[in-house]
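INTERNAL AUDIT FORM
Audit reference: QA-55
Scope: verify that the stored structure record matches its stored sequence.
Auditor: D.O.
Record contents follow.
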Amino acid sequence: MKLNKLKMNKGPDIDSVGTRMLIELATEISETIADLYNKFLSACDIPQDWKLANVTAIFKKGKM
């Protein structure tokens, strides 16, 4: 299950749901999340918030 593979050192997202909560509740919420996601995909009605992202490139090492 992908939720169990999340890294614990990550902070909560804008929805304030932390990684620890997702991992601890993985078995209880995974089926509901999958059903919800599949309904959005089958209806071709993806919420606008899911289409937005703030992507920032981070220089790590090497020549710049």
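Auditor finding: record pair retrieved intact. Residues 17-44 form one domain.
Action required: none
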